[in-house]
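Re: [help] complex structure
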Amino acid sequence: MALTAERVLSIQSHVVFGYVGGKAAVFPLQCLGYDVDVVNTVHFSNHAGYGRSGGTKASAGELNAIIESMEFNELLAPTRLLTGYVPGAEGLSAIAGLARKLKERRPEMIYLLDPVMGDAGRLYVAADVIPVYREMLPLATLIAPNWFEVETLTQVPLNDLASLQRALRILHDEYHVPNVVLSSIPLKPWLFEALPQSIRPTDDSEYLLCISSSSTPNSTSIVHAQCVPLLPGYFSGVGDLFSALLLAHFHPGTQLCGKEETPVSYAASHALSKTHAVLCITHQHSETLPEEERQPTDDEKDASEPLRRTRRMRGRELRLIQGQDIIRGTSLKDCRRLQPWEAFWDLKA
Amino acid sequence: MALTAERVLSIQSHVVFGYVGGKAAVFPLQCLGYDVDVVNTVHFSNHAGYGRSGGTKASAGELNAIIESMEFNELLAPTRLLTGYVPGAEGLSAIAGLARKLKERRPEMIYLLDPVMGDAGRLYVAADVIPVYREMLPLATLIAPNWFEVETLTQVPLNDLASLQRALRILHDEYHVPNVVLSSIPLKPWLFEALPQSIRPTDDSEYLLCISSSSTPNSTSIVHAQCVPLLPGYFSGVGDLFSALLLAHFHPGTQLCGKEETPVSYAASHALSKTHAVLCITHQHSETLPEEERQPTDDEKDASEPLRRTRRMRGRELRLIQGQDIIRGTSLKDCRRLQPWEAFWDLKA
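Output below.
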């Protein structure tokens, strides 16, 4: 394990039970040698998927009081910044101000902005955070949106290759984001058809695609991609774990072999492989639970019997602790390396 | 590393920067294979030793809202409970109610109560928490007070062997605490004189003594002890780290070799050795810092130049991340095993 002198300032949600937000991100970063300063934007009993949760959101005033004291005490000196779920625009604006200050003070600070807004077509933050995120994008070194968040930020529905190209161009050119990692986009036929042979899956299972795109000074971006099998059912905190691992493995100073790998495709390969391996042991574990702990989603039954949903959620919490050797492992078995997608920008939809 | 199916509910303070309270306890427990549910009793920028900190305390109402939602969602099923810093009596009473309920529901649950109240003669909680802690003591499987907290709980000033015996008797017999670990008591001459030869240090350095005492059904308790060199200056979070490690290594079902070792002396040996090793690398690191980062305590100068104190504190934050191999290591080099103190109860002061 590399022991770095690096310090991450992580700003996202806190839940008492289970692994989303900071609970999914901080432990992996610590295992990989980072000191982590942990700002909690909410303090909840559990994630929202359970249907009921207790706790409070940190107000913008509370966040600012913490930030000001850290400033006063000279404790605001992270080498990396990671921001995730912030529930409202006022709080997010406080974080935006902090990010701006830190970036001005230390331009080489690596900022991974995870614009956590929603998933699968559903927004789970107040809509007024969207313009704040757009303003923050130019501060980011890399962003890790899911496909819905890309659509929300760029206002481009991703339904063919041309729209994917357009969305990436907007993020790189209009919002000046140097590195974009689209962590998981369903591998629909239009996307499958566009993929180079080297990346296409060879069986009929369902797959997700991970895409990294790094802008270059004088041309279109360098694009890499890799597929990963979709595991059945929904797991919470996956994006938060992925982003933490992406940040942990991102080493922009490192010499890599030309177009075969960029610092961000390298980091995405490790994040993708480790996240998938943790998901596999989580899925395996959930399969061993008694039947009442793993009743499939059924909106009607879930509504009439809330514990049905609660128990399913509990059985699908990420097995981070049991998977810590996966997270720590520097030599990955089955590393799913992102492959160059050289013709990406030449393709016409 | 043993991967357990055990889950710790940890209830203590949270700081953004540095390692006290939950930040000192949760990561070690996770490294040692425990899932940890994390309730934060305060959300501060940094520990109080910096002189200034920003943030808020969780109210009893906020704590109860979280506890109730966890109850509703069937998420209150820890195999172990760890409670530390809770700033006020109302919040502590909420925690006491929770501890009582959990213990009734699962009598074999291991409860490590760390009655965090103060240090070195100074109380840093509201005085009205003291009677609440006294009421909670009978719920505990083990407690880990420092000498000042023993004095506060028992109202016995520890100034000779008779008073130490009296204090332990009060904790075991009046408060029905089965296991007491006195993590660090200065090895004053009266204590040195009382120690068996096997435990006495052989040089003139300053030492602290760690004492474990386990009650037995039909007689006085079994006492073990070990010395550890005192490192210069003050480090924060040491007690919180020690308690977490004590809990992590406490395995009451395990067969041990009679009076040579009890489950609690075994756990204290590991907690003491690992905590000391982490302190050593923390001390070594602080010695490498530039001079302005390690100005010795001087109340007058510290008052006129607050950053003097801040910088000293920052340079003395526990090196938990850099010491994670120490925490994880199952085979300890230089394990300071607590030794039987067989004549403890026979000694007259």
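Chain B touches chain A through 48 residues (CB under 8 Å).
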